[in-house]
# Entry
Amino acid sequence: MAGRSAEALLGAGFLGVMTTLYLGFQWAPSVAIDAFESPAAQRIFYWHVPAAWSAFIAFAVLFAGSAMWFFKRSPLGWRLHVAGAEAGLACGLITVWSGCVWGAAEWGTPWDWTDVRLNTFGLLTLLALFLVLGRQSQPDGVETRDTFSTFGLYGFVLVPFTYIATRIWEIRHPGPVIGAGDDGGSLSGDMAIVLLIGAVSFTLFIIGHILMSMRITGLEQRLEQAQKHLDGGMEWKE
Amino acid sequence: MEGMTYLTVAYLGMIAGIAIWTWTVVNRSKAIEARLEAVEASIGVAASDADAVAKEQAE
# Structure
């Protein structure tokens, strides 16, 4: 049942993500030709922004899961931690990749080491990479889970920092286009609609992925237990 | 490069990322489910006993 829901969410999210792509190319208006160095490349943002939004959802799930494991020893918390790290890595990489390509088109350089938003988001993605690779290379145990949960807890500090970075230090990365306060956003109505469809679709997609990932972790644990029983049985038989 | 080339490269990279990620997750799920069914059928382990580390901590 849970597997079906996850697959349904994944499917619905995927359809929405593809619809966003189509609308972003075919329906959304072009930006003013003199406002950007590379006006065509601006359409990258119909996936870039929702992917970054999804990454933040994933990092919130990672934080909640880490806290649930660390303080409550909750098995659900550990599954949330694993799912949040995997989803955060995937969405983080998509965001960084699209941002780098847009940066190369617009700024003439894919990365700016002086920009706070770029660097804190890059660090978050590296944290997710560390958690995913670390879990795969270490045997499962309390110490391993505690160590990775601690990283998940403290790493979350970077999320609000990343969010406010362009409000405080706008160096290269553009400021917020939604919820920008009194300054207002720079989005036209049609652009905002496509972006909203993208955000909803990516949210569904990532929730589907998180549910799938949690299910896989549960299945892996059951398989490990079953194999232990099997190994024990075989030893007993000998 | 032209703006459209950057746009194409960005979207192809993102489509590849999403496709690989989804394909890996769905495949992992199916493969592990099949292995689990085969192993559990032969020994009978309850799903509630699955997370041994958490169970150990609770005890």
